[in-house]
Please model this.
Amino acid sequence: MARVLVTGLQGFTGPYVAAALRAADHVVLDAAEAHSFDLRNAAQVAETVKRTRPEYVVHLAALSSVTHADAAELYAVNTVGTEHLLRALADHAPDVRKVLLASSANVYGNVAGGEPIDEDTPPAPVNHYACSKLAMEYIARTWFERLPIVITRPFNYTGVGQSESFLVPKLVAHYAKRRPVLELGNIDVERDFSDVRMVADAYARLLAADAAGTVVNVCSGRPRSLRSILEELEAITGHRPELRVAQHLVRRAEVQRLTGRDLRLRRWLGQSQHCDFAETLRWMVREL
Model:
């Protein structure tokens, strides 16, 4: 049993990570339980670390929208905020055994060619969210000698509780609520989708793995077309909305396939137990 400090526990991923940690008999400490906890405030972050004295840390807190209007706020939270956390851990958490920082596969950008993306693929971020996460990674590297850090780059994942501003929950809601019209861009693109429960399990298990000073893709390694997701939802719900191409959703030079390679993840965790994505969709439909 160990004390695990989790930032961003109230977000989409947080409750699933907490469940995975508790299943491993860890004590989950919520950074937000402090009445004053703001990643942008170094003193508040330091006080939280001194109060909780964690043995492990899972850092999920971030602004996660690629279309967030305030670029300065993205960097203040995602980049500088992480620096505040790492400095506080180095100064006030002598017992810390692993720090997991959740970055994003968005740092890879729109990699052409269709080959699976591994951790050696050069980053090429195309928006401020991805840039803020890549900057966070580079800052974290300056702490590798003082802190046992593992950086995860999750690809697309979904599940119950994710906002409809994300693609798959939007699709699930259209079908489950039998909305008559669905506007989309290119439905023939292929992306790497996982279940949030798999991602949470991977995070919990990486804390105990002999992985530090490294970056790890968290992904299924399996490309899935948007068209196949629509077909699966039609089979699950019996509903077939009218599909319309919305030009504002059609991206120029759309990359046909983006999928990850999870060799490092399997090196440390063994073969991941990926959920059948059709079951993920059925779960999401049931819970609406």
User: Anything to note?
Assistant: The longest helix spans residues 71-92.
